[in-house]
User: What shape does this take?
Amino acid sequence: MVATQIPTEKVQQSRVDGVDWNNLPFGKIFSDHMFVSDYKDGAWSNDRIVPFGHFTIHPASMVLHYGQAIFEGMKASKLNDGTPVLLSPEAHAKRINASAARMMMPAYPEDRFVEAVSQLVRLDADWIPPAEGSALYLRPYMYATDEFIGVRPSETYTFCVFTAPVGPYYAKPVNLVVEQNYVRAVPGGTGEAKAAGNYAGSLRPAHEAQQRGFDQVLWMGGPDMQQVQEVGTMNVFFVIDGEVITPATDGAILKGITRKNFITILRDQGYTVTERVIEIDEVVAAYDAGTLTEMFGAGTAAVVSHVAALQYGEKKMVFPEVAERKVGPMLKKYIDGLRAGTVEDKFGWLVKL
Assistant: This one.
């Protein structure tokens, strides 16, 4: 199918020359354009690329009252020859629609999703940071727009994609604490969707952890709050006696794109990867036995977030220096190399623009 050129209104003067590429705070600098589409009368229409700017919103807009809002996180980078690329855009298109289904929102056509992000990145390719490990972060999202106060699904929505040049999300390994009071999600809830409200609910626990000197929390689940779920806003991996273990997705855990890619890479390289229930007591026992050698988070923003230490009650587990680890650094190097074109795209994840 031949792609349709999306109607585009370009900025009169780009702001890209004012960017300090050596100082890119995450999520605070935005590029020149954004993609917007409207849902009305049962169909998506009026696809357009316009200058990045504010929306006008009605005070009774349903998203403000009932929280129908979902999003994705993606990255664009450049190969060493300067070609812009996306990593697994089709997987993100499928996942935002899975989130939409859970939140009673309309699916956005996957081919139009991929074409929208592709044309937007082509237009703002100069905003892709040059340094390895940096990227152009893409934020596709959808929200309800009915001007109505009543608990029901909205009948109108806006889908938007904007981009932001970013540096590394976590510049150094993080210190975590096992969360024993708050719950992120339960099977049957909305934890498997990238729903905005999930992240709002995580702010208080994260704040309290930071007040105690930690960077983030390790979420617990299960009937007795013993089952490991996620770390902060990322999927979590453990390396125990050479085996890589990550919690199984049970409806409470996000089906991360980076998580899925990591599992594929690891198995291709001969690692044993297990997706199963893992309890915090097993983590402690492996640490005490000297078989727990690595713990790291996996997500689009950070790719790999190495864990420096994990606090569980009075027990503090300190992990080896990153230079002494094998799995996490390998995965980060693999993904960065894939985005730069120095690692073969043997799984067909890259889309060249």
In short: The mean pLDDT is 96.
